[in-house]
Design a protein that fits this description.
This is DUF1501 domain-containing protein. Helix content is about 35%, strand content about 15%. It has about 400 residues and is an alpha/beta fold. Strand 3 and strand 4 form a beta hairpin.
């Protein structure tokens, strides 16, 4: 099956033409050489918005607290995809279990931050900014934005791309780096107006020439991308027909085409499961697992697997005890996923105990800033040095 070139080029034009002039001046690539430069690591972040119930994601089925606190939401042990003799995947996460068996999935357990907030906005801002305590996180720049500011790779592409139609998250906002949104618009086409000689002079003429040159550059970029995409075949890529699946396929297309952006970001909504959790949570976890595995299979088939890492996170977990609506309320700690051929595979960090709670919530065992620091330093190669607790120990998240 061929890559959907029309769809991708339409989306490319949204990036190239919708952000004049700040993006085009940096993102336009003039030749095939630049588009086939596959050096450098790539981080793909999947934001699992709403607060994922980590207890029913990576299930501590042997913990006596599981049966005690989960009556209607307890998943049958014989349906779980066993990781070891006490922990298993949700039954919908077959693709994630396959990645684990292939040595391509790391599961960091009990991830959170001190004095947790159960507010979606506040907690997400803390995760986005990597700032906790008395700092004004809502006025901060994002942790990925600061990382890109420090790296300053000067690549001929945006530093960060949000694939989707949501507002740009704080995580990719920065002082100097370029972050753009590539909307999922399938019917957009690259239309270049016919240029006509201008009778004006001065500033107006200069502006006209600039716009004309920008359009020509954008067209050249689209043509180069088209030639490169034509070379790519997706016979091994079987993406799910979900919003997240389509977004991961778009990211893969850009990566395989040689787009030199190091950070891609996608958002999967729906994890705020206060009621009737079982069916919606099952669907969400299947979408996440299937899209992640399809993406990694795709880039591996293209020989790029050693360059790509996927990270999945949520702003908080859920309460240990289920509520009266067959759902769960806002909690604290939860798992963070790292997927790729270079990650340290398996369970990472201590498993929170469901019998050792703090005000009914899981006790945090890993500070999220510790995860970020290793992603920044060991994967992205940036020595900016996010602030982490003095007691933080090395998680050794990567095999590189």
């Amino acid at each position: 099956m061929k890559t959907n070139r029309r769809r991708f080029l339409g989306q490319s034009s949204a990036v190239l033409l919708g952000t004049l002039p700040s993006l085009v001046s940096r993102a336009v690539v003039a030749d095939d050489r630049a588009l086939t430069d596959h050096d450098g690591k790539i981080l793909v972040v999947i934001q699992m918005s709403g607060g994922n119930d980590g207890i029913n994601t990576i299930v501590p089925y042997a913990d006596e607290g599981y049966a005690k606190h989960r009556k209607k939401l307890r998943l049958p042990t014989d349906r779980l995809l066993k990781i070891d003799d006490s922990i298993g995947f949700h039954p919908s996460m077959r693709s994630a279990a396959d990645l684990l068996e292939q040595g391509k999935l790391g599961i960091v357990q009990g991830v959170g931050y001190p004095n947790p907030s159960r507010s979606h906005d506040t907690s997400m801002a803390i995760w986005h900014s990597a700032r906790v305590g008395g700092e004004d996180v809502l006025r901060s720049h994002g942790w990925l934005g600061r990382t890109m500011d420090a790296a300053r790779n000067q690549a001929d592409a945006p530093d960060m791309i949000l694939v989707g139609d949501e507002p740009q998250p704080l995580a990719i906002q920065s002082r100097r780096s370029t972050a753009v949104t590539l909307s999922d618009v399938t019917d957009l086409r690259l239309r270049v107006p016919q240029s006509e000689p201008s009778a004006h002079s001065g500033a107006a003429t200069s502006l006209t020439r600039f716009v004309e040159q920008t359009m020509q550059n954008a067209t050249a970029t689209a043509n180069v991308l088209e030639r490169n995409i034509e070379k790519e075949t997706d016979a091994s890529a079987k993406y799910p027909s979900t919003k997240l699946g389509q977004r991961m396929q778009t990211i893969s297309t850009m990566v395989k085409s040689g787009f030199q952006t190091p950070i891609y970001y996608a958002i999967q909504d729906g994890y705020d499961t206060h009621a009737a959790q079982l069916p919606s949570h099952s669907r969400l976890l299947r979408e996440f697992s299937d899209a992640t595995k399809a993406f990694l299979d795709d880039v591996e088939a293209s020989g790029l697997s050693d360059r790509v890492c996927v990270m999945g996170f949520s702003e908080f977990g859920r309460r240990v005890a289920e509520n009266n609506s067959e759902g769960t309320d806002h909690g604290t700690a939860g798992p963070v996923f790292l997927a790729g051929s270079q990650v340290r595979s398996g369970l990472i960090g201590p498993t929170p105990k469901l019998t050792d709670l703090v005000d009914g919530d899981l006790r945090m065992t890993t500070d999220f800033r510790n995860v970020y620091q290793e992603v920044e330093r060991d994967w992205l190669g940036c020595k900016q040095g996010l602030q982490t607790p003095e007691s933080a120990s090395s998680l050794m998240l990567f095999d590189v």
